[in-house]
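quick one, two chains, predict together pls
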Amino acid sequence: MSGGYEQDRVPAGTIELEAATRSFRVQADAGRTLKELVLRSGARRKGVRGPEEVWALRGVDLRIEPGETVAIVGRNGAGKSSTLRVLAGIVPLDGGVVRIGGHVAALLDLAAGFSRDFSGRENIMMGGALYGLTRRQVEERLEEMVAFSELGEFVDLPLKAYSSGMLVRLAFAIVAFLDADVLLIDEVLAVGDGAFQRKCEERIAAQVAGGSTLVLVSHDLSLIERTCRRTVLLEGGRVAADGPTEVVLQQYVRLLEGEAAPVRGTDHLAEVAAGTTGPVTGEDEA
Amino acid sequence: MSSTSASRPSDLKGHGFLFQQLVQRELRQKYQGSVLGLLWYLVNPLLLLGAYYLMFGVVLKPGFSHPAYPLFIMTAMVVWLFVQQTLPAAGDSLLAQAALLRKARFPREIIPTAVVTVQALTFAALLAVVAVLTVAFRGTLGFPLLLLPVVVLLLILFVQGLALAISGLHAHFRDVQPIVGAILVPWFFVTPIFYRPTDITDQSLARFALEWLNPVAPFAEAVRTILYDGNVPSAETLVYLVVVSALALGIGAALFRRLQRDLAVML
């Protein structure tokens, strides 16, 4: 079973999910080695059931218009990060379709894929390439990116020499200048110092003002209030609420309070215990 | 289901720069900060060639002889070295670049292909050295040399097919790369490098097996025929090479397409 990822069949900046479905299984199911595969097929014959499916998206229909600013909230494991990965085309759907108009830039795993042995400048080239730019396009933006990152002379040093804050600045600088029609941001703004965070927010606001669509996953409610006019609440892979941020956030807060009373995070623990040793495959707990 | 084809990031155009960056990174990363740098790519195989020659040409005197025996060995050995170095490297490639796979949407084939490209460049450089030496010493300058690029191209396509299959399989089953590593050892000895099948057996069945059952053997023998003998490989050899590389590439690419779907989630 597989779903579709269609690019440029809708106007630039539009995002459309249609009956989008995606589930994950707990890691051990993947049969990492032949030995496990053999053992697993043996277990199946004896009628032992595999780990349960965790639904990230379960028949979700969603349409986001160009220029909208949308936050996705939900409890841990509700499928927020997976949704972003689906929108970015990194994780395929099991069923349904996702349609994206124009160029997508996803700020996921910000510093992932950087090479510590190479300079900031070289990593900018690689980063740009990863997002589908040509050499010329990266070179045109290079100076802007370097200036934005405030790395100064460090930009020519290998990443080994960088602090974690510098890594974040470099990573954000790359994505900030991709001129994407759709910006997908996962929690990453929480890192870096306050001044740089504000600068990033301003840059994002400028891009939104220029017509880009923003989809943000975050636990930072005040950041959501500042940047997003619409909020989608995911619950068990379904859209539990979708509307103006101030309304949906209230509902979200009630949801959190409701579950906070007994023992917080038990559902995640239960998931791990019921499943197996491994983490959830989608690493979908942000 | 109908839109499955559109769901696959298979569009290579627009990702040429990424491919180029990966090749560059791969080339440089390995030996960055070392004095010889990229030359290590040539030094290692040359040392290996020298060691094998000492072992099989000097220490263990075989019961047959070929003039300019080091060249006889080398012309087949370069082909083997390309296969031997590429397959394990490709097997590991998706795991090594898992962070990139999780970060952006691009055709996953780029990653093993970059590894094959780097190894193919090394192979081409080494082959150039061997070719110049062999042609000079053996006086085999002639029109058969025109076939060398064709054979090399077919070999690269053949290895690319295997690399796609192995990298995709290894991402799913972590035993694949060790298995490949284990197979390479006996595979080396059944590949006619230090000998020709006629040197070691009179049995036509054994000879047939040595010549045709191992797909690397016809490639090695074709290169040797062109460089060392100065002859054109037989028609059946050329047909065999075309068929085997097309098969490897076709099956490897199809397999990879099936296996690449959930890479960002699995790795």
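The radius of gyration of chain B is 20 Å.
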